[in-house]
Amino acid sequence: MNKYVLFSPIGDHDPINTRDYSEGSMLHIVRHYKPEVVVLFLTSQMQEKDKKDNRYEIAIKQINKDIKVEKIESKIDNPQDFDVFIEYFSDILERIKKEYPEYKILLNTSSGTPQIKSNLILETITSSYELIPVQVETPVKASNTTEDKFEMSMLEKIDTEKEESNKRCFVPQVLSFKKAQISSQIKSLIDSYEYKAAKELIETSNIKQLFNEEAIKMINHCYYRVNLQFENALNSYDIPIEDKLFEYYYTIKIKQQKGELADFALKIPPVLTELLGAF
Fold this sequence. Notes:
Elements: E1 4-9, E2 16-17, E3 22-23, H1 25-33, E4 37-42, H2 44-53, H3 55-63, E5 68-73, H4 86-99, E6 104-108, H5 114-126, E7 131-136, H6 160-165, E8 169-170, H7 175-191, H8 195-202, H9 205-208, H10 213-226, H11 230-236, H12 244-257, H13 261-277
Parallel strand pairs: 1-4, 1-6, 4-5, 6-7
Antiparallel strand pairs: 2-3, 7-8
Helix pairs in contact: 7-8, 8-10, 10-11, 12-13
């Protein structure tokens, strides 16, 4: 069973939507994904609200009193500025990854300003490790207003049975953007005959899931073939190798083009051996 850490910015409608007493995005993700740790990211405005009544932690503990809650008080007072979050989120997520290496990291991409949400989606696409963005639909399938009418007594009005049965959170298909980015990198590596780097990239745990098995097998085949490991190449992908002499020739040619002179020299004796055996 997966263990989760939830990283969640806080927005105007956390922890509860005061119009219909439905759970806000952060709380709804907590209910359905059951993270063991929740890291809350508070801008200056959200900090002021939290200081009144500790509303966010209290709401989380009502679902599960054993959840560990950490608050990051950013002191950011201009959350409409896209650039202010660029390095901020990267550093926080890197730290969470180091502290909880066995946990999957969830990102609440429905709370906060559009700039906060966009930055978290960008982190999902560009991160070298797996991040899971989670989006939450509002019950009325419409955008929320920003007026704050929260009172602590409203937490008692949450229809927990309805919230349990009506899951509104889902993982958006942003990974298609990541796949396009990685595909471009892999194509560039292959064009440069950098099969080892392409193999290592596509076999990275959070990238491997983006590609079908055939693509991975073909890259492995190319890697083994250019290193003259013919048996491994055939085991990876069954493309006939009809003439080893040509294989040696093109491998040497690639080494020469890449300027790998030491490897180039090492490959010459096997070619001569193969050549003499052909006559």
